[in-house]
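Input sequence (122 aa), recorded before submission:
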Amino acid sequence: MGLDAEWTKGELTQTQLKPDTFSYGKARQQGVHYDYEVEASTIAPYVQGDWQVNDALKITGSLRFDTILYDYDNLVANGTTKADGSSCVNNSAEAVPCLFLRPPTVMIALTIPVPRSVLITA
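Predicted structure, C-alpha coordinate format:
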Protein backbone atom coordinates (compact mmCIF):
# COMPACT_ATOMS: atom_id res chain seq x y z
CA MET A 1 0.00 0.00 0.00
CA GLY A 2 1.29 3.46 -0.77
CA LEU A 3 0.73 6.89 -2.23
CA ASP A 4 2.37 8.69 -5.14
CA ALA A 5 1.98 12.47 -5.34
CA GLU A 6 3.23 15.05 -7.81
CA TRP A 7 2.70 18.80 -8.22
CA THR A 8 4.03 21.18 -10.84
CA LYS A 9 3.50 24.82 -11.78
CA GLY A 10 4.56 26.45 -15.01
CA GLU A 11 4.05 29.46 -17.19
CA LEU A 12 4.94 30.62 -20.68
CA THR A 13 4.98 33.98 -22.38
CA GLN A 14 6.02 33.87 -26.03
CA THR A 15 6.35 37.11 -28.01
CA GLN A 16 7.33 37.88 -31.59
CA LEU A 17 9.08 41.22 -32.12
CA LYS A 18 9.11 40.97 -35.94
CA PRO A 19 6.17 42.76 -37.68
CA ASP A 20 3.12 40.77 -38.85
CA THR A 21 3.79 38.51 -41.83
CA PHE A 22 1.65 36.34 -44.07
CA SER A 23 3.35 33.56 -46.00
CA TYR A 24 2.65 29.97 -47.01
CA GLY A 25 -1.00 30.49 -46.04
CA LYS A 26 -0.21 31.36 -42.41
CA ALA A 27 -0.45 34.68 -40.58
CA ARG A 28 2.26 35.18 -37.98
CA GLN A 29 1.36 38.06 -35.72
CA GLN A 30 3.64 40.53 -33.99
CA GLY A 31 3.25 40.62 -30.24
CA VAL A 32 2.20 37.98 -27.74
CA HIS A 33 1.59 34.49 -29.12
CA TYR A 34 1.08 32.74 -25.78
CA ASP A 35 0.74 33.91 -22.19
CA TYR A 36 -0.51 31.27 -19.77
CA GLU A 37 -0.04 29.74 -16.35
CA VAL A 38 -0.70 26.11 -15.50
CA GLU A 39 -0.78 24.00 -12.34
CA ALA A 40 -1.07 20.24 -12.38
CA SER A 41 -1.13 17.65 -9.63
CA THR A 42 -1.56 13.92 -9.35
CA ILE A 43 -2.46 11.98 -6.23
CA ALA A 44 -2.42 8.22 -6.64
CA PRO A 45 -3.04 5.77 -3.79
CA TYR A 46 -2.28 2.16 -4.63
CA VAL A 47 -2.49 -1.31 -3.16
CA GLN A 48 -0.60 -4.44 -4.01
CA GLY A 49 -1.14 -8.00 -2.95
CA ASP A 50 0.52 -11.37 -3.31
CA TRP A 51 -1.17 -14.74 -3.36
CA GLN A 52 0.99 -17.82 -2.96
CA VAL A 53 -1.18 -20.39 -4.76
CA ASN A 54 1.20 -23.27 -3.94
CA ASP A 55 4.94 -23.79 -3.43
CA ALA A 56 5.63 -23.21 -7.12
CA LEU A 57 3.07 -20.53 -8.08
CA LYS A 58 2.71 -16.95 -6.81
CA ILE A 59 0.36 -14.27 -8.20
CA THR A 60 1.02 -10.58 -7.55
CA GLY A 61 -1.49 -7.89 -8.48
CA SER A 62 -1.88 -4.18 -7.86
CA LEU A 63 -4.42 -1.41 -8.36
CA ARG A 64 -3.87 2.33 -8.45
CA PHE A 65 -6.38 5.21 -8.49
CA ASP A 66 -4.99 8.27 -10.29
CA THR A 67 -6.61 11.60 -9.45
CA ILE A 68 -5.41 14.30 -11.82
CA LEU A 69 -6.07 18.02 -11.36
CA TYR A 70 -5.13 20.35 -14.24
CA ASP A 71 -5.67 24.11 -14.11
CA TYR A 72 -4.75 26.05 -17.28
CA ASP A 73 -5.20 29.83 -17.21
CA ASN A 74 -4.94 31.58 -20.58
CA LEU A 75 -4.06 35.25 -19.95
CA VAL A 76 -4.74 36.52 -23.49
CA ALA A 77 -7.57 36.17 -26.04
CA ASN A 78 -8.67 32.59 -26.85
CA GLY A 79 -8.54 31.11 -30.32
CA THR A 80 -6.61 32.18 -33.40
CA THR A 81 -6.70 35.96 -33.02
CA LYS A 82 -4.06 38.41 -31.89
CA ALA A 83 -3.59 38.68 -28.12
CA ASP A 84 -6.02 41.64 -28.00
CA GLY A 85 -8.72 39.69 -29.90
CA SER A 86 -8.25 41.44 -33.27
CA SER A 87 -7.81 39.44 -36.49
CA CYS A 88 -4.63 38.75 -38.38
CA VAL A 89 -4.69 39.74 -42.05
CA ASN A 90 -3.33 38.29 -45.27
CA ASN A 91 -1.44 40.22 -47.98
CA SER A 92 -4.78 41.58 -49.30
CA ALA A 93 -5.70 42.96 -45.84
CA GLU A 94 -8.46 40.31 -45.44
CA ALA A 95 -9.06 38.91 -41.97
CA VAL A 96 -7.61 35.41 -41.55
CA PRO A 97 -6.89 33.20 -38.53
CA CYS A 98 -3.51 33.74 -36.88
CA LEU A 99 -1.09 30.82 -36.84
CA PHE A 100 -1.21 30.16 -33.10
CA LEU A 101 -4.22 28.58 -31.39
CA ARG A 102 -4.72 29.50 -27.74
CA PRO A 103 -7.16 27.28 -25.85
CA PRO A 104 -9.56 28.80 -23.32
CA THR A 105 -8.96 28.68 -19.58
CA VAL A 106 -9.87 25.23 -18.30
CA MET A 107 -9.84 23.24 -15.08
CA ILE A 108 -10.03 19.45 -15.23
CA ALA A 109 -10.39 16.97 -12.39
CA LEU A 110 -10.28 13.29 -13.27
CA THR A 111 -10.09 10.06 -11.25
CA ILE A 112 -9.13 6.86 -13.03
CA PRO A 113 -8.86 3.33 -11.58
CA VAL A 114 -5.83 1.73 -13.20
CA PRO A 115 -4.97 -1.96 -12.91
CA ARG A 116 -1.22 -1.66 -12.59
CA SER A 117 0.09 -5.17 -12.93
CA VAL A 118 -0.55 -8.85 -12.63
CA LEU A 119 2.55 -10.99 -12.31
CA ILE A 120 2.49 -14.76 -12.23
CA THR A 121 5.69 -16.50 -11.23
CA ALA A 122 6.32 -20.18 -11.11
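Checked by second reader. The chain has a mean pLDDT of 90.
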